TrEMBL record:
Organism encoding this protein: Amycolatopsis silviterrae
Protein's name according to its UniProt entry: MFS transporter
Transmembrane stretches, start-end: 57-77, 89-110, 155-177, 189-212, 243-265, 277-300, 309-328, 334-352, 373-393, 399-421
Highest taxon above the source species: Bacteria
Membrane topology: Multi-pass membrane protein
Amino acid sequence: MVLEQDVNAAGRVRRVALASAIGTTIEWYDYFAYSTATALVFNKLFFPSLSPASGTLAAFATLGVGFVARPLGGIVWGHFGDRVGRKAMLVASLVLMGLATAGVGVLPTFAQAGVIAPVLLVFLRVLQGISAGGEWGGAALMAVEHAPEGKRGRYGSFSQIGVPAGLILAQLVFFVVNSSLSPDQFRSWGWRIPFLVSLVLVAVGLVIRLRVEESPVFAKLRSTGARSKLPIVEVLRARPKQVLAAAVSFIANTAMGYIFFAYLLSYGTSVLKLSSTTMLVVVIVGSVVWLASIVTAAIWSDSVGRKPVYLAGSVLLVVWSIPFFLLVDTAQPWLLIVAVVVLNVGLGATYGPQSALFSELFESRFRYSGSSFAYAVGAVLGGGFAPLIATALQSSTGTSLSVSLYMVGVGVLSLLAVLAFPRKPLVPVTGE
């Protein structure tokens, strides 16, 4: 009987982990489809009256708007995630993201509708940002709060791999569409296909998410009546230092991540004059390494602790920032691949253990709010305008060294925040 219960429990944990991975992959596919299109075509489609450089800046500005909305999503989803449940908010985030993404796929361009086109684009990006702000916390907590003791890093990584997996899926879809059509066809209507594919993916994700059980930690909170009435207020009062440290620790990862998969596409095609196909392949290779390093780092953190893994990754990101663009500027594809491979090892080490680490910083009654808000604030401070800042720096200075120095700056900032993390879990994830 005990053995049967153990088998059933293990199967339940695996189902939740798989649902977390698949759901976040679909969610981030939607988010990154926008990022990819921003780097490739949105400047021409929605800001054609501007110069190429100004159009790119404007397109990346709409990318940043989605990040500004993410703290709002973190607060709203965190509140109801701590009050209503993790599962319900995960379903809501997936529906909202899918509808917003499909909406981008049917938008009129500037040539068809004038100024209303970029206005609608920004509105849909805001909806994506709100959804993304609440998605991560729910997926991370579902995986971590179901995980057995000693394996929270391993199971928490399933929510983390959804980010590179979604990026890989988005890049592959764009690669296939871009390779199958002429440049004129892609700019005319082909760019819409990846956004409309979202409807099918969201349907699949909903079927999977609706079948998983609620987090046992939240179920206990509900049964005991221990839920917080105003979780975001309580977490900011009880754990302000932890919220700040968690948010700042994420700045470098998200800033360098968006420089890698959003800015690099634009830089490679517009400045280095490499084909979009070549750049998509480079990003896909880097994303595969990112995914593998996330899992490796998360498992490693179960053995040595979250902080040592974070420190190793943070140091690598700082050290590699200048060599990264020195290799990229050779315009040799194999050297570009070396550059992104090493960078993504650092990104994986500072992202793999994140679900477990953030969960271990906050008590269960306000854990969704604390984790989501810290994640969203770090994202907006880091990745929100990183491609815009990188484009502006390169355009104004004429050298990628300025972008590298920017990467060093955010890397050092996050490294200092990582040093403030506790060596061991601050609070228990289960059994509170």
